[in-house]
Description:
Jelly Rolls; 6-stranded antiparallel β-sheet
Amino acid sequence: MKRLLPFMITVIMLIVAQIAKGQILYPSYSSVYIDFTTGDFTQFPVEDNSSTYAWEVVHVGNDYYMKSTNEGVANSSSYILYRVYYPYSGYLSFKAKCLGEGTTELYDKCRFSINDGVKFEHGADVGGDWVTYTFRVPSGWNRFFWEYSKDSSVNPAGDGFYVKDMAFYPDMTFVDFETGDFGSELTFTNDATHPWTIGFGGLDYAPYNMISGNSGIANSTSSILTSYRFNTDGVISFYAKCMGETGSSGSVFDACNFYIDDERVMHEGAVGYQDYAFAVSEGNHTFKWEYSKDSSVDPTGDCFSVADMFFASRQVSYVCFTGFTAPEWGAHPDFELSTLAYSRCHIEEIKWHREGGGNDYEMHPNEVFDHPEDDYYMTVKVMPFSNPVNFVFHTSAYCYFDGDNGIVDSPNCHVTDDGGYLIRTKPYRLDPTNAAEHTMKTIACWPNPARETLYLEGVDGETVSVYDNTGRMVLQEIYNGKLNVNDLVPGVYAVTVAGRVMKFVKE
């Protein structure tokens, strides 16, 4: 599992949940990885956090994690709750550090529950190091609850419950053989003559492997197979070491083979541990691992060793961006945007548009937002990753900008002809009277307040526009030394000239 988490980052995407009526909703076939590197909980909204001792995200060295906050407070509780919908059964994985009190009898307790059923309860009995926990999760709504509860005793060393690298995997199956047997996740049909066994693979990040059973037996075959139903187009991956035999010319003698529906898709002789990943279509599929020996001498190792099987969707249901800057009056458009590092797509193109009078204009970086009668919106085109397999977009993928789905114009987002996904934000109509001071290119004007005449500096011969506090243009003329504001009703106004702006008060 220690090795698998980084690989999952490249195979499955992180999403940020949609909040609707207080519930966290997912379209089907989504997976979530939360590393807290944003420094807060925006990657994945929380259903409930302690009102008195709310959990917080901290950054120590290279570590980001969430933690309880009731350290040193006797007879207290600090908890956090996530609520997630699994369209199919799946898994939850996370790393935790339990710094409570007690080994045989527990006093200050780190407790984790799924749907009110306690999965573990620790004090100081697990040594206070980071430990990986993985739990099977049923289909439907699920409640995940972490709590640190303190009694009236003195404070233990550390005194808290720390959690990081949270991963929710609906509609996936992971088999790591760490139970020392074939487990219950899948049903395997083993070779009757030379059965595969579970053994230690020699690596601390993939300790348990299933291993072929015909080592040293000439002209023999050892195979094992299983079946799996994918609810969408999917991916199967596994970690394997091929200890067969490869000749000097590259010919394979003792072969490690992998079949999908009786089609051989892998044929290796002697290859060290590496990841293998294969795309599969929606539906039922049969997978077979086989070690086939000829009559030659035995190679070193002489077996096919497989670990960390992973079955999941390759459909991209979410697209998540960071770094979005909303348009502000007088500012230049910001084209800086990035996908989350563990997303399954990359940005191909970003555009800002100005729409008005029946026309749609593409903006350039040197332009500014200075048309109050027009709408502004951004479009982003993203392309799916093609490594380790070709991923595909859901026809109505959910999109988020810095954790916010509300600014997305979802009806106008769609899959493109070349397999990309085009995302459009909702339109922005800007009010010059509400321009943020730090974005303004200001105009020197006087007197301010003004009664009859307003003087502007350095704008002779340019078009001057005046807007009231509703954004309505009330005056526009070519500036020629002074501006007559006598007919304006008292109030706050904005003067604009080519993106520069200044507020003034009419008395």
